[in-house]
Design a protein that fits this description.
heterodimer, A: 245 residues, mainly alpha, flat, B: 262 residues, alpha/beta, six-stranded mixed beta sheet, four-stranded antiparallel beta sheet, 10 helices
Chain lengths: 245, 262
């Protein structure tokens, strides 16, 4: 085995199995990720709200939820959702794919809720005080003052969560749910070219995650100095036209 | 007699085991300008923040324009309510009262995601039913008053500290408050910007705005106040007209304090 053969094998595999890798594998991986992160974000928002509840019991229960999910491996959670839960709830006739998606949702909700909570709590307390001192209610303060600022902290972190989950969907291949890592297993089984398949799958993951992480860090920078650019073009134009700014 | 604007009765406030206010009773009359000075940790800021309930005193009462706002009850009142001889007091809507108490903070706390103009118009449009146009008109007028009219559409991130604080002051004024509370308004400013902010406050108190000012600027306190309070160890230890206060201090703690800062 040398690099030249590996190279030509990869080209052959790609020309023959690109559909398996891209159309089945990648699209299922993306689908799982989008479902997990979007529903996970909704659920996570709810969890975050409950975590900031004024009732101690609710806060306590929610922190157990978060600690259990963040403190156990995602693979273990997948086993529970794919094997244990269906036998406990046999009337729920769901596919492995659906159970996997649910497990990833739950998992991401715990992480996302912490993203929301820390994003909100990172907004300076003085902002709340200023808004309340003007007479805004707690709810108005949250909507008009806190959330618009928290979103700057939340969105980039949510992007990172998307990348994390995208990689973690590979664990779902344990149950052959048709994600990108499953397509590695499929093609390897058919061709016995394990190493080449790994390289291909790895490259596909990278092709998705690398631009995404660049996008996130670009976004992060843009968010960090809020609105600086917003009026600059106006100012420049006004200056150029000799008018007053 | 002049009307009472804010009256506190026996205010107590603790943070954990730290007893910050130890029974403060004080009355601020309408139109009065009161400065509070004293050492750090003496309870000045806590007292000021209690007045609009940013800190909730555990005990004692605050009357704002005659209405009790803490909802705190004395022992006798609790007994009377239990016995049915006194009706349960209605729940206080503090948001309503806060609309009439402007507050200016040490760290400005302008809203960075809103333009200078929106910082001012947000609360009046949301809470006082002003139309966008009315509020904008008012914002322009207020900004002209403090020399920031050219910053109308700017984001606060581009303003200097002094400009931010001037914005914070007019943001509070846009609610047309009956009293202004200043919590060390110049303590976080670069020295060369202190003057511009003090000038704005001076201009404001000259219009007859009732003001309570926590400050470390002794000369300023002496110049603008009708009355100066000295707070230390959680209570008001001495108060007097500015001239008497600074030239004839009687309490040993105040003498000691003035000898160090003047």
């Amino acid at each position: 085995m040398n690099f030249a053969t590996i190279g030509s094998n990869i080209v052959k595999l790609l020309s023959q199995y690109w559909k398996v890798f891209l159309i089945e594998g990648l699209s299922n991986t993306l689908l799982l990720t989008v479902i997990a992160v979007s529903l996970g974000a909704l659920l996570g928002a709810l969890v975050a709200i409950l975590k900031m509840s004024r009732f101690k019991v609710i806060r306590f229960l929610i922190s157990i939820y978060i600690e259990v999910i963040r403190g156990t491996p995602i693979l273990l959670q997948l086993y529970i959702f794919v094997f244990a839960l269906p036998s406990l709830l046999p009337f729920l006739n769901l596919s492995y794919f659906t159970w996997t998606a649910i497990a990833l949702c739950i998992n991401s909700s715990a992480y996302v809720s912490e993203v929301f909570r820390s994003g909100i709590q990172a907004v300076d307390k003085g902002q709340t005080e200023a808004a309340r001192s003007l007479g805004l209610s707690a709810g108005q303060t949250m909507r008009k003052i806190i959330l618009p600022q928290a979103i700057r902290n939340i969105l980039p972190a949510l992007g990172n969560e998307f990348i994390m989950i995208l990689k973690e969907t590979s664990l779902a291949s344990t149950f052959f749910v048709g994600d990108l890592m499953t397509s590695y297993l499929t093609v390897k089984g058919a061709t016995y070219l394990g190493f080449e398949c790994l390289i291909i799958v790895g490259m596909i993951y990278l092709c998705v995650t690398f631009p995404l992480s660049k996008l996130v860090s670009w976004f992060e920078k843009k968010m960090a100095n809020p609105n600086y650019k917003k009026h600059d073009h106006k100012r420049k134009r006004a200056v150029m036209e000799g008018g007053k700014v | 007699m002049e009307m009472e604007m804010i009256k506190t009765v026996d205010l107590h406030k603790s943070f954990g085991s730290l007893h910050v206010l130890t029974g403060v009773s004080e009355t601020i009359r309408k139109g009065e300008v009161v400065s509070i000075i004293g050492p750090s940790g003496g309870g000045k800021s806590t007292f000021l923040r209690c007045l609009n309930l940013l800190e909730k005193p555990e005990q004692g009462k605050i009357y704002f324009e005659g209405a009790e706002i803490t909802g705190n009850l004395t022992k006798e009142e609790k007994h009377a309510i239990k016995a049915g001889t006194m009706p349960k007091p209605a729940k206080v809507n503090i948001d309503q009262h806060r609309q009439k108490m402007g507050m200016v903070f040490q760290h400005f706390n302008v809203f960075p995601h809103l333009s200078v103009c929106q910082n001012i118009t947000l609360a009046p449009t949301m809470l006082k039913g002003k139309t966008e146009a009315e509020a904008n008109e008012m914002a322009k007028e207020l900004l002209s008053r403090v020399g920031l009219i050219d910053k109308l559409d700017e984001m606060p991130g581009k303003l200097s500290g002094g400009q931010k604080q001037r914005l914070a002051i007019v943001r509070a004024l846009a609610m047309e408050p009956d009293v202004m509370l200043f919590d060390e308004p110049t303590s976080a400013l670069d020295p060369e910007m202190v003057g511009e902010v003090l000038d704005v406050i001076k201009g404001l108190v000259n219009t007859g705005m009732t003001s309570v000012i926590v400050t470390h600027e002794m000369r300023f306190a002496r110049e603008v106040s009708d009355r100066v309070l000295f707070m230390a160890e959680g209570n008001i230890l001495e108060q007097n007209t500015p001239d008497q206060f600074f030239t004839n201090p009687t309490h040993p703690r105040l003498k000691d304090f003035l000898s160090k800062v003047l």
